[in-house]
Amino acid sequence: MGDKKILSIGLVCLDIINVVDKYPEEDTDTRCLSQRWQRGGNASNTCTVLSLLGAPCAFMGSLAPGPVAENLPDVSVEDFSKVDLSQYKWIHWEGRNADEQVKMIERVREYNSKQEEKNRITISVEIEKTREPLYQLFPLGDLVFVSKDVAQHFGFTSASAALKGIYGRLRKGATLICAWAEKGADAMGPDGVIIHSDAFPPEKLVDTLGAGDTFNAFCDIFPFKRGQPTGCSHIWLPDCG
Description:
eight-stranded mixed beta sheet, 10 strands, globular
């Protein structure tokens, strides 16, 4: 595996977090105990967790010169053309500007076609928002994360039903994962077998900020560190907590 990295492409943003003594009731005033500003964003959070787990990683996204900025376009295929693909073993896309991301992934596929299998880049995509343009990413990932919101948008009422109904959109050999909040997460590979992991909530739940990004990082890092390809019959899911 060498020193090749995981590249996470997508959003970095400023999260403004207000701490209160209890969850506010609707249409009431609640005194804020404290406030903090911290870095957030799906791709950025995923990269943070990967780093904490000891994985070599990098982030690619639009960065502002200060805490408040306008006109921050998403990463374009022109931006991505400057990336040295030989430095990466895995690239993860947070579904955003899908038309551009399709072209980026095409570049990686072209690169992979000229490499030995051991040097090919694994592609993962996250489809979280119920936006039609994002659905063109389904057939492009070796590992595809689909959100509960998207699954419900398609009319599915469980993770397992979503996997069975959506898997046909994926490329041959891919793996599909769907997390379903407190009900855990399910995954399915090309053999059609569904693997389930229960949720293991902490003793005290404060908030769910970054929960999905953390989950995605675990699903990326485990096969990465073992040198295990995705899209195979051996799918691993982290305990969902």
